[in-house]
Design goal:
Layout lengths: L3 E5 L5 H4 L4 E3 L3 E3 L9 E5 L5 E7 L4 E7 L7 H17 L10 E6 L8 E6 L2 E6 L2 H5 L1 H12 L5 E4 L16 E4 L6 E4 L2 E4 L15 H10 L4 E5 L5 H8 L4 E6 L2 H14 L6 E5 L2 H6 L7 E4 L11 H18 L4 E7 L6 H15 L3 E8 L17 E7 L1
Parallel strand pairs: 1-4, 9-10, 14-15, 14-17, 15-16, 17-18
Antiparallel strand pairs: 1-3, 2-6, 4-5, 5-6, 7-8, 8-9, 10-11, 12-13, 18-20, 19-20
S-adenosyl-L-homocysteine binds next to helix 6.
Length: about 400
């Protein structure tokens, strides 16, 4: 396959020298004739010195870097990356664990494979490709997964229908590209949950909250818990195991509520401590004053782009104000943001404003983040997206 050369404008090589893996379109002096979205390119500085190799794409991020040395980008190269990622998950106590078989195997730039997400559920790999280049490589990744994971790998499911650039005209279809698994039940810290590959959001479950859910369990004893934005009920079955007095799960999606009920029943059949409600968050909280002494707020990303940042911050302020208003004295509020463009500091400032507005005495118990299977390259701070606070509210 042909490797094109992209030449940068003078001075635009600085971020690459600091190993940042993105090149913005404005930094490019010269695009080679014939280069197409998804093609492999060599990136050169204005004096034609080699800088890095990456994949070209149309849009504001024009190149995603895959290597800072000149080398063959072939199946061996990708297999090595998958091997490294798998080793890291073993070292983090996830791959091979008897109590958890749901984890993220590939976290895009955090694993040196920009544009690719792979989550593992009981031996089934769910792949999400976000770039044309990664989509073209899906067979390569499938082979690499088979080679690296051997018998541990049951199936590979491609779930890129909603994640690829629409304009690329690839018309991807979700489906198995290796093996098959049905009625998938995965384990997280010994709790069971169903994964709906076809209809579920993202890759089917939010594996990034594993450690924060365990923390919720630790504080749940005797508490009345509101799990707002519950999706498949992750925080709820942990709270039940933590001996909560009652757990109410709320999500605006009927399908999510159905999944929550199924998951709670898998772990705690006929447990009258749990109830699930399909409702809008604000509407539900209107009638929830003084009912709960633990509230979990894990909303969807309020800001996917910088231009809506101010609105997102307002949204976090409003939502958390409501929670501070209704939580019982001595309550614990777990609050999260998964918006990549909202920094830890901005989020904390929004929570600070909400707390000040309520006039309650609020203390931070824990600063929360994404777990080790969602690693952040130190050169790519944008990879840090999940942030949260656990607070004691008097
Ligand atoms: N806490 C979940 C993940 C939450 S994802 C977990 O641990 O897995 C965000 C969820 O918020 C989605 O399920 C979505 O349906 C729900 N949601 C979005 N807008 C909402 C609203 N206005 N009120 C209630 N739920 C909402």
């Amino acid at each position: 396959m042909q490797t094109f050369q992209i030449i940068l404008k003078h001075g635009k090589e600085q971020s690459l020298k600091r190993f940042h893996p993105w090149i913005f379109s404005g930094a490019i002096k010269h695009l080679p004739a014939g280069v197409e979205e998804g093609d492999l390119v060599e990136v050169l500085d204005a004096a034609r010195n080699f800088l890095a190799m990456g994949h070209y794409q149309i849009g504001s991020i024009a190149v995603r870097i895959v290597s800072f040395v000149k080398e063959n980008i072939d199946e061996t190269f990708w297999t090595r990356k998958i091997e490294n990622a798998y080793r890291l998950r073993k070292e983090a106590g996830l791959a091979g664990s008897c109590t958890t078989n749901a984890y993220r195997l590939i976290h895009g730039e955090g694993d040196g494979i920009p544009g690719l997400i792979i989550d593992m559920y009981a031996g089934t790999a769910v792949m999400q490709m976000h770039t044309v280049a990664m989509y073209r490589l899906r067979e390569t990744f499938c082979n690499a997964l088979c080679r690296v994971m051997g018998d541990v790998l049951v199936a590979v499911y491609d779930k890129s229908e909603g994640t690829l650039p629409f304009k690329a005209g690839l018309n991807p279809e979700n489906g198995f590209i290796f093996g098959k698994s049905t009625g998938l039940v995965a384990l997280e810290n010994d709790l069971k949950f169903k994964t709906d590959l076809e209809k579920g959001q993202k890759t089917g479950f939010f594996v990034d909250q594993r450690e924060n859910r365990a923390l919720v369990e630790r504080y749940s004893n005797g508490r009345s818990v509101l799990n707002m934005f519950c999706y498949t009920g992750g925080f709820s079955f942990y709270a039940l195991r933590g001996k909560a007095a009652l757990v109410h799960s709320v999500d605006s999606s009927e399908r999510a509520i159905e999944l929550t009920r199924e998951n709670v029943a898998l772990n705690y059949p006929d447990d009258s401590r749990h109830e699930a409600f399909a409702s809008d968050a604000f509407r539900f909280m209107e009638h929830a004053a003084g009912k709960y002494d633990m509230i979990i707020l894990d909303p969807p990303a309020f800001a996917k782009h910088l231009n809506v940042l101010q609105n997102a911050l307002k949204g976090y302020r409003r939502l958390n104000s409501k929670a501070f208003d209704i939580i019982k004295p001595g309550g614990i509020l777990f609050t999260f943001s998964c918006s990549q463009v909202v920094s830890r500091e901005m989020f904390r400032t929004a929570i600070f404003s909400a707390a000040a507005h309520s006039g309650r005495n609020v203390r931070i118990l824990h600063q929360l983040e994404q777990p080790a299977d969602h690693p952040v390259s130190i050169y790519h701070p944008e990879g840090e997206y999940l942030k949260g606070l656990a607070m004691y509210v008097e």
